[in-house]
Amino acid sequence: MINISTKFERPDPDLVKQLSTFSSATIHEAQGRLGALDSTIKPVDHRMKLCGPAFTVVCAPRDNLMLQTAIHYAGPGDVIVVSGGAYAEAGSFGDVLANACQAKGLGGLITDTGVRDTEDLRALGFPVFSHSVCIKGTVKETVGPVCEPITVGGQVVRPGDVVSADADGVVVVRRENLAEVIAASQQRVDTEAEFIAAYRSGKTVAEICNLMPMLAAKGIVINE
């Protein structure tokens, strides 16, 4: 007998909402350039965004039995995160399952395998981030873990960690680090706003970034 637990500690919804205001790149940089999933995992529509607690599941390649199981047990706002062996040649998720997810109020899907029916997914607007787009079908044969730590896109994702994604990519933030990462992200946004204001006032990149001493220290001589 295989026991599957579907219970885990979810993050504070207010903190998730605050994190959602920052881009994936900002979050990644703010937490010390950590947490970025492989750059091959991208949205099926560049306008798609998501931010929510990870509901993790492991699927065998070309098998979506446990993905459907995860969809059944996930709650509103949860983001299904699938470790499917980074197998590109399978379309394990499409418009029918996306409608099932949307009807339950789920926050999105992130998978290291393939999806299909992308025109319908774009029209539906349910956020889907995948390793590939592939029309090849799947089976429902192999059982696997649900709501356990998984490895996807080169990162360990635990149930209840927060995944945030946009057109640039996907980043994971540890549940216990949320408040700290939010503060660091805001600080980064404020600093970048100061840079932009300085550039628009007429200052140069060399002035703002103190480039000349760095170049000189590396032996660069510039003849103007």
UniProtKB/TrEMBL annotation:
Reactions that this protein is recorded to catalyse: oxaloacetate + H(+) = pyruvate + CO2; 4-hydroxy-4-methyl-2-oxoglutarate = 2 pyruvate
Cofactor(s) this protein cannot do without: a divalent metal cation
Enzyme Commission identifier(s): 4.1.1.112, 4.1.3.17
Tagged with keyword Transmembrane helix: no
Pfam families according to UniProt: RraA-like (PF03737)
UniProt keyword list: Lyase
EC class (word): lyase
Domain of life per record: Bacteria
Keyword Lyase: yes
Family listed: Belongs to the class II aldolase/RraA-like family.
PANTHER family, sorted: 4-HYDROXY-4-METHYL-2-OXOGLUTARATE ALDOLASE 3-RELATED, BLR3842 PROTEIN
Subunit architecture: Homotrimer.
Protein name according to UniProt: Putative 4-hydroxy-4-methyl-2-oxoglutarate aldolase
Organism of provenance: Streptomyces africanus
